[in-house]
Amino acid sequence: MSATREIPVGKFAIGGKQPLCVIAGPCVIESEAHARMIAERLAEMAAAAGLRFIFKASYDKANRTSISSYRGPGMKDGLAILKRIKQAVDAPILTDIHTVEQAGPAAEVCDIIQIPAFLCRQTDMLVAAGKTGRVVNLKKGQFVSPWEMANAVEKVATAGNDKVLLTERGSSFGYQNLIVDMRSFSILRRTGCPVVFDVTHALQLPGGEGKSSGGQPEFIEPLARAGVAAGVDGVFLEVHENPPKALSDGTNALRLDLVPSLFGKLAQLGALVRKWEGA
């Protein structure tokens, strides 16, 4: 299997021979107190399992199914919240941007700038994210083949930035359903970029509930284990203490109290895979 390069993120690195990393947090910032609680709990759980941890949360969900859906606190207030959480938890921060203009402000706070799957071919956004010098996480569009993502990586590289992560989050399978092609992980690794598996979004049923998306969270653990066995460098999970009450993507979120068990299993499996690969 193709080797990926190591990319520094905060105080550690992801990719190459590095241990498995988890990128986890709520879908959207619901309040500062809530986001900080989730971040602190996840940091403790990751440390207990021996996993590297990156906190993720969105300040604006600009691609919600319905105009009436909650979007978040907005960029200014959201980035201020993320900055305070970063200082409190001492963990790298990831957030997504939806316009070229958001790249600069987000980069002042966050360690990783994420390009949403729906926007993974938007050249100006990819170049703008690359110009910040931050690590760029490219979500593979549900409509894009894994080998096409080499073109997206090249767009970021034109800005002089090779610090790119590639994230698999499923492919459209008819209407309102996604499947994960396990071959994708090996294909994405051929770019040399660290590969992340967004397990919870891969279990969305897009627009499946009319004005919101449905989900199949009962499959989070088996898919996460399969992805780690396939050699991914990181696992991406959206987490909430009470998914039915979550303001975004609760139908496919991992319940907070289930995290320690899953983290422990993924850490053991990740170590075994790296042993097989000679890491």
Briefly summarize what is shown.
Helices cover 35% and strands 20% of the residues.
Question: What topology does this entry show?
Answer:
Layout: E1 7-9, E2 12-14, E3 21-25, H1 32-49, E4 52-56, H2 75-89, E5 93-96, H3 103-109, E6 112-115, H4 123-131, E7 135-139, H5 149-157, E8 164-168, E9 171-172, E10 178-179, H6 183-189, E11 195-198, H7 199-202, E12 204-205, E13 214-215, H8 220-229, E14 234-240, E15 254-255, H9 259-276
Helix pairs in contact: 1-2, 1-9, 4-5, 8-9
Oligomer designation? single chain
Mean pLDDT: 96
Count of individual helical segments: 9
The main sheet comes to:
8 strands, parallel, barrel
The CATH architecture is: Alpha-Beta Barrel
- In whole angstroms, how far apart are the ends? 13 Å
Which strand-content bin applies to the residues? 15-25%
Give, in order, the helices and strands.
Answer: EEEHEHEHEHEHEEEHEHEEHEEH
The CATH superfamily is identified as Aldolase class I
For this structure, the CATH topology is TIM Barrel
Into which percent range does the helicity of residues fall? 25-40%
- Gross morphology is globular
Contiguous uncertain segments of 5+ residues: none
Task: Decide which structural class fits the backbone.
Answer: alpha/beta
Using only CA atoms, what is the Rg? 17 Å
Report strand order across the widest sheet: 3-4-5-6-7-8-11-14
Tally of extended strands? 15
CATH class: Alpha Beta
**How many domains would you count in the coordinates?**
1
Sum up the structure in keywords.
279 residues; alpha/beta; TIM Barrel; eight-stranded parallel β-barrel; two-stranded antiparallel sheet; 9 helices
